[in-house]
Amino acid sequence: LLITPADTQRFAPHQIVMLVTGCQGEPMSALSRMAVDNHKQVKIQTGDSVVLSARQIPGNEKSISRLINHLYKRHAQVYDSTSSRIHVSGHGSQEDLKMMLEATRPKFFIPIHGEYRQLYQHKKFACTLGYKSEQIILVESGDTIELESSCWTHLY
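RESULT FIELD:
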């Protein structure tokens, strides 16, 4: 059962599992806002468990440490790779990518994460799933495109 954050109030806390953004301590992520009691719909309660399933990306140590400290201030139980054997990749497998493309069936598809060669391979993979090359838009940082209902244009 998938519900919105606003609907969590209808369930007992032990019935709720949330998947949220922010395990790297990104300031505007859902988890960071929850950790500082600044999320409009979700409050971390005493006894809540928070699982940080990704390893720390070098350079994010201070942000993650700050995040974990705020979670402890809310009396949450925090599980991460330093205390448990937990790790999930932040990158989807080809099977995950296939599942998302089949579930959403977008008119246009823009691979956005990775080096250009990875974006190119993602495009190639989408073509094996029946997408036409012109439906898949490869862009680089700073590129501007215009999308319309049936076409797209690379402006610059």
